[in-house]
Design goal:
261 residues
């Protein structure tokens, strides 16, 4: 059988030609002379290529690839990604406004994450009809319910549940343990008083938002979140409007539970 020829490696956007640095075949010296310095230059082709790799990887599943605006909030970059169908992960009302200015059609694909959301920011996001809020605390859910009721707007949201699982990453960027400020403690999320609050904020069923990158941590977290999802929200695979646990179905959760026995 003839072996397949491996796909060529993507060209590097920044290369030297005749001892002059170029980006996408454009001389940086010429750009600096024209626009002055300091000058920030990005490769549109490289950004687009990387985004399309994510799109292709999930092509067989319903998905939305969201770019974190806090990584680089340049309007040009946001516009470039928005035109290609990207969603956006924001953490402030200011970032929401940048998405609006860059590519307003992308507002329907915005996910509002982060702690400490203020009332005016929630109002602005509700009026913009964003995709969903990632709720970080009981107090935030109360505020979201209040603002949604006052504006008579349905609030779509996910509960960011902290499963108290260590992701085996640098302690300065770890977010999945109970001592971290991010997410709702899973013990608190199980509380009846908390669960009863959910219908006040939206008629849609909430989703679960989790983020662990380690393989071992991911498996443990899938089990932890899976138990929570089944116990509290009675999630069933394929149920319209039911919460999602990333791409994990109920069958996968049961399988993971059995592996731990």
């Amino acid at each position: 059988m003839k072996k397949k020829t491996p796909a060529p490696s993507p060209a590097r956007p920044f290369v030297y030609r005749n001892r002059t640095l170029h980006c996408d075949q454009v001389s940086l010296a010429a750009l600096a002379e024209e626009h002055g310095t300091p000058l920030y230059i990005y490769s549109a082709s490289q950004i687009s290529e990387r985004f399309q790799l994510f799109q292709q990887a999930f092509a067989t599943r319903p998905h939305t690839v969201c770019y974190a605006v806090k990584a680089n909030s340049s309007l040009a970059i946001l516009r470039l990604l928005g035109r290609q169908g990207a969603g956006f992960d924001i953490v402030s009302g200011g970032e929401l406004e940048r998405v609006r200015r860059a590519y307003p059609h992308a507002l329907k694909k915005v996910v509002f994450s982060g702690v400490g959301k203020q009332a005016w920011e929630i109002d602005a996001a509700l009026k913009a009809n964003i995709l969903q809020f990632n709720v970080e605390s009981e107090q935030e859910l109360e505020l979201l319910a209040e603002r949604a009721k006052n504006l008579a707007i349905r609030a779509r949201f996910a509960l960011r549940v902290n499963p108290d699982v260590f992701a085996e990453t640098h302690p300065y960027i770890s977010t999945g343990l109970s001592e971290h400020k991010f997410g709702i403690a899973i013990t608190q999320a199980r509380a009846t008083t908390f669960v009863d609050m959910v219908p006040k904020a939206a008629t849609d069923k909430p989703e679960l938002s989790i983020a662990i990158t380690s393989n071992d941590g991911k498996r443990k977290e899938t089990v932890t979140i899976g138990k929570f999802a089944v116990d509290v929200f009675a999630i069933r695979a394929g149920e319209p409007g039911a919460g999602k646990i990333e791409a994990t179905t109920l069958d996968n959760i049961v399988k993971a539970l059995e592996e731990l026995k």
